[in-house]
Give the backbone structure.
Amino acid sequence: MARRISIFGSTGSIGQQTIDLIERKAAEFNVVAISGGGNIDLLAAQAKILNPQYVITAFSEKNDELIARCSDLDVTCLAGREALLAAAMEPVDWAMSAIVGFAGLEVSLRLATHGTTLALANKESLVCGGSLLTDTCLEHGTVLLPVDSEHSAIFQTLNGEKRSEIDRVIITASGGPFRSWTREAMENVTPAQAANHPKWSMGQRISIDSATLFNKALEVIEAKEFFNFSPSQIEVIIHPQSIIHSMLGFVDQAVLAHLGVPDMRGAIGYALYYPDRKPLPVAPLDLAMLGRLDFEAPDEVKFPALRLAREVMEEGGLAGAVLNGAKEASMDAFLDGDAKFLDMADFVERALQDPAWSKFGDAQQIDAIIAADTWSRNYVRTLTEAER
Ligand code: NAD
Ligand code: MG
């Protein structure tokens, strides 16, 4: 029996790599829904290959274009946010949540109700709505699998180990393109420079997050939410080659590491075939060729994002949603030329320090999370307007 699957964010970097794996074993999968944003050419091309029941663009103004491009296909075209959320309610055996940013949270929450398997690339879901999402999965018997390479590595090294014997988790970070730059040199960095990741090929926004280390900040919070680690158990180490994807340290001081070439199809494929392992189109690891692996401590003065992540974990509640919303709005401003590279961490810190967001209430309520997200975006917009 073919497995019924959906891919939300199918036109993105993770979405396309998921489809690459699906296409190789097309007979094993029955695609229910794929969703994208503004890239209708790619979305229609994917619909042609995968023959899904539903193809959705999140942007309602793209409705006519999508219908025109899919006119020769036997698919139902849908457009807009409500249609996207409705499509996420279609039952499937396996779903990929790979929309970028806060827009992915409500999709993840719906996918978590199917009682099957949810492969989670959208780390913002856990950063903003951690316990809401994990509780929804528990309530419905949904297996939540990490797709972020670090979390997939932790998940795989945890296999068969006793949680009580884990001492710490060591999350690796490439350090991004500005690892060896001075803070002064980073002042006039352009979006193109920031999006040019040295090791991983990813979407524009996560690449810029990697340059500020906000991606690692999100991942630290994601690890706490996913695995229920205490903040003091989570360490970050800079490892420029990105060969070790993360490590677990045990009470006997043994450390288990997960290694592989930097190729997201490894983590996506693990989540696709879990609990089995299947051959994947990933290059073998050649350690002799590599010769060496390097490590260094992160510089939290140059990259304040990691310090902010720790503060957010200590604070709990809606702090994750505020960090993420302020970070997304700061990046919008950076991309529009209204903020400088180093402003991004500064704006996030100022949003977190403002007491106003604590009034939104309970992080278990989606309305409170949305209110905190909206507030933090508006807060950053006010800051960028004041600077202009
Ligand atoms: P991307 O920018 O390449 O793709 C994002 C997808 O989301 C696209 O399909 C786009 O059309 C869709 N989208 C954008 N805005 C939307 C909106 N408002 N509503 C609905 N859909 C929207 O992003 P990506 O790099 O594939 O990352 C996707 C998620 O996976 C992110 O949360 C990212 O942090 C995470 N992730 C990515 C990688 C990677 O290697 N790319 C690795 C680990 C985790
Ligand atoms: Mg990652």
Summary: The mean pLDDT is 97. Residues 148-150, 219 surround magnesium ion (ligand 2) (CB under 6 Å).
